[in-house]
Amino acid sequence: MAAPRLIALPSKRAKSFDPKLFLTRIGKGKSTKEYQHRQTIFAQGDPADAVYYIQSGKIKLTVVSKRGKEAVIALVDQGDFFGEGCLAGQRVRMCTATAVHGHAIVVRVDKATMLRTIHQRSEFAELFITYLLSRNIRIEEDLVDQLFNSSEKRLARLLLMLAQYGKGSKEVSVVARMSQETLAEMIGTTRSRVSFFMNRFRKMGFIDYNGELHVYNSLLNVVLRN
C-alpha cells in the first residue's frame, strides 16, 4: 500500500476562539506567572490539577521513559492551552512542561474553576471544545506523518509548522532558535540526520541560518514531493 502523497499541515486554530474571551470570563481561580527559559511549569508525575493558557512565548512538552530516555512530544505556542488532561480524569501529569526560547507568560486556571466555567458558560464551552477538536486533528496528522513519511519530510513539515506556514502571507519566516537535538527528538531521528537535511535544505534555498533560522515557503516542495 502506497504512503499518502500529502501529509496535511497543521489545521488553523479555530477562528471563533478568542483568547480575550477566555481571560475575561474567568474570575477567581486563575493566576498569571512569567517563566524564564528552561524553567518548569509542571513536571511528569505532578498532580494534574489545572489547565494552562499561554499568553506569550513557547512551551515544550517532554516525556521521560523509565530508562531515562527523554522525548519531545509537542511545542505549544502563544494562544494555546496545555495540561487539559486533568479535565478528563488524569490525576498526574504524563509529561513535563518547560518554557523555551526566552520567557513565557502563562495563565494557570484551577481544574474546578475551568469545569465551572465550561458548565456555566455555554459559549465558552463551545469555543473550548472547538479548540480541542482542532488540536486532536493536529495530533492525528502528526501520527500519520510519523508512520508514513521519511525523516526528511517530517523535518520539513516541522520547520513549516514552527514558521506558522499558512497563517500569513509572508514568503519567509524567522523561527526561534532550536537545537538540532530537539528537532531530532521531535521527528524521531538522530541529530546527524537533522544536520544533513538542514544543510541540504539550505543548499536548495529552502532555509537560511546565520544566527537566526529563516524558513521559506518553498520548503513545502519537500513535503509535497513523492
SSE blueprint and pairings:
Layout: H1 19-25, E1 30-35, E2 40-42, E3 50-64, E4 70-76, E5 81-82, E6 96-110, H2 111-120, H3 122-148, H4 151-162, E7 172-175, H5 180-187, H6 191-203, E8 207-209, E9 213-216, H7 220-224
Residue runs with pLDDT of under 50 for 5 or more positions: 1-15
Level-2 CATH architecture of the largest domain: Sandwich
Radius of gyration: 18 Å
Distance between the termini: 14 Å
User: Level of helix content?
Assistant: 25-40%
Individual helix count: 7
**Overall body shape:** globular
Looking at this protein, list some descriptive labels:
226 residues; 6-stranded antiparallel sheet; 7 helices; 2 domains; 26% strand; alpha+beta; globular; disordered N terminus; 9 strands; Jelly Rolls; 3-stranded antiparallel sheet; Arc Repressor Mutant, subunit A
Task: Explain what the structure shows.
There is one protein chain. The protein is of the alpha+beta class and 226 residues long. The protein folds into two domains: 19-142, Jelly Rolls, CATH 2.60.120; 149-224, Arc Repressor Mutant, subunit A, CATH 1.10.10.10. The chain has seven helices and nine strands; from the N terminus they run H-E-E-E-E-E-E-H-H-H-E-H-H-E-E-H. It has helices at residues 19-25, 111-120, 122-148, 151-162, 180-187, 191-203, 220-224; strands at residues 30-35, 40-42, 50-64, 70-76, 81-82, 96-110, 172-175, 207-209, 213-216. The strands form two sheets. Strands 1, 2, 3, 4, 5 and 6 form a six-stranded antiparallel sheet that branches. A hairpin with a 5-residue loop joins strand 3 and strand 4. Helix 4 (151-162) crosses helix 5 (180-187). The longest helix is centred in the middle third of the chain and has 27 residues, at 122-148. It starts with 18 loop residues before the first helix and ends with a helix. 25% of the residues are buried.
